[in-house]
DNA sequence: CCGCTCATGTCAATCGATTGCACAACTCCT
DNA sequence: AGGAGTTGTGCAATCGATTGACATGAGCGG
């Protein structure tokens, strides 16, 4: 028996033609120009209120829907923003996308607003480049790139020559683009400081891949504050191949096998923390009694655990709002003197970082 | 101190103009028509190979990028597919979106391919309707709707009059649209059958909201097989307000408080299962020794638990492939005699459904 | 050497909405 | 009454690519 079976149903369907502005104009006995103005938000005042209402009523009645392609062609602006996200499974990224979308849609009421086009970067050879080219061909008015890497610098720079490009969540150093990011160095330091406050003396971190700037910064901030607070960090630089739970489990095994054990563990994200916790359970250990533990990102899983996890909240709202603000400002005026901003994360203390 | 601080950097940037077909034609001393044909995939044979190569070389050199808006306007086709997803945090939905996107991009090599436009249904008053209208204004060639509800029927029907609309993951009964869905009834039955095989006699299910067809079907299938296999189901119809872990926890409390306890529990999704597990742990109980438990969706969390969960794998690949196939066929030929398909899910046995 | 076909290209109309400019009808003011 | 504004609409050009109709010239058989 095949693993998946299928049941089937068959049917058909007939198409319907859409009405265009010319036809609507003919029906109403007015010029297309008048219709265009009556339906627009910024030029509506040029039309007498009586005809304006007549036109609007007729338009909705006839189910008239303007062809945005034609409008874009003529106008040279599409009122569209391309949002490029590296990984749609990442909770933080999706939250940022959501908030940006909500933000951009908000002013849909007054003015034309900006319609977001979301796309995930394929892991193909030239996913980013291809996506950028697609966006530009679609004539987006701006592009927001979430979690770009240094390798994308060239492609992004090229795109930035044509339309505003805004970086969110992760900036890149090779080129200077407007960005809204998180201060991961401060985030790492925040956790170390928390451990210091709770009198931990020997601590360690389970680091995400150090090729990723995010994790590098978290590690640096954590280590810096360790030194400053006179805490001992062991083992130095326990780095993983990926920031996922299975790697967290491996790291836990290493820590448990070591002779000197830390009393507190900082996992670079909640996935790693979860892996660590699972491994602890296998060894009959519990947190925070045997190990204090702090994660990062305040993902759903960290909240729903029987013992909710102390973790670091990513400044999602701030990053999203600033990214959206940058886009709006730059779309309105390409010479806008923008400011890149770095937002500090915030520790959510749920008690698992305290000494037992 | 404010929870989030900000650091700042300021810079500026200058724009660049894009080249259009007319200019490229002037540079090369050929007609725009020749360029159009040389660059197209289907009419390229009308141009001599020498000029074709000359044009292509010059085009890439000049960084010429055709304006898809203009092309769409003239052609009446955008080679674009709108993908509407109800919840981007849902792992199954995102996996389906991903596979559909990958599938649609695949034939980008030969032929123009279809570019997916992804958007999340706002939870606003008329999220679906608004999104559909936006898509239609963008002149998408087809629309794929993931997890539509019966309430969307009217809006979908209207859209379907203009372009092909394909439903994925969840079908609706009010109208007859091509769809690629999962046989949730069979999924529920699968779990009950598994329990029967492992000699459970008294079992129960933690149901997702029964207003959602998905959960209703799972419940029905499970109950049907319970009766057929002569198992006792208690308490009948333990339904939750949302399919999330906190609700699973509440359900667990109810079950533990009851006098006759089941030996096996079917949670309608992995989130509910997780909540149940957490509550068990709080009571010092462990699975599958105290309760056998089976979830649904094979989400990441079910895999990374210290004791990975027996769960039901959603037929993501099948659903995605069929949805993409439907779209491709219908875009090519609106009178295509389509078939809706219902794919059966598959039980992933990780041992937590067996009797202790 | 004539007419014919075929291969290459060019011409110009077209898709649908937007907008600068022109103009008519009115209001006001002296 | 006549000139200066003010409104409200219409006209027509325009955005950039596509494509059916047509022109040109080469090649070729009779």
Strand and helix map with partners:
The structure is a homodimer of 356-residue chains.
Chain A: E1 6-11, H1 21-28, H2 32-39, H3 49-62, H4 68-75, E2 80-85, H5 91-106, E3 115-120, H6 127-137, E4 142-146, H7 153-160, E5 165-169, E6 179-182, H8 184-197, E7 202-207, H9 213-228, E8 232-233, E9 238-239, H10 245-257, E10 264-267, H11 270-282, E11 292-294, H12 300-304, E12 311-313, H13 316-332, E13 338-343, E14 346-348
Parallel strand pairs in A: 2-3, 2-4, 4-5, 5-6, 6-13, 7-8, 7-9, 7-10, 10-11
Antiparallel strand pairs in A: 12-14
Chain A binds a DNA duplex (30 and 30 nucleotides) through residues 20-22, 30-37, 40, 43, 46-48, 51, 66-76.
How would you describe this structure to a colleague?
2 copies of one chain form a homodimer. In chain A, 42% of the residues lie in helices and 17% in strands. Chain A has 356 residues and is of the alpha/beta class. Chain A has 3 domains: 21-66, 434 Repressor (Amino-terminal Domain); 78-177, 3-Layer(aba) Sandwich (Rossmann fold); 184-314, Response regulator (Rossmann fold, 3-Layer(aba) Sandwich). In chain A, helix 2 packs across helix 3 (49-62), helix 5 (91-106) crosses helix 13 (316-332) and helix 8 (184-197) packs parallel to helix 9. The first copy, chain A, starts with 5 loop residues before the first strand and ends in an 8-residue tail after the last strand. Chains A and B meet through strand 1, helix 4, helix 5, strand 3 and helix 6 of A and strand 1, helix 4, helix 5, strand 3 and helix 6 of B. Strand 13 of chain A pairs antiparallel with strand 1 of chain B, so a sheet runs across the interface. Chain A binds a DNA duplex (30 and 30 nucleotides) through residues 20-22, 30-37, 40, 43, 46-48, 51, 66-76.
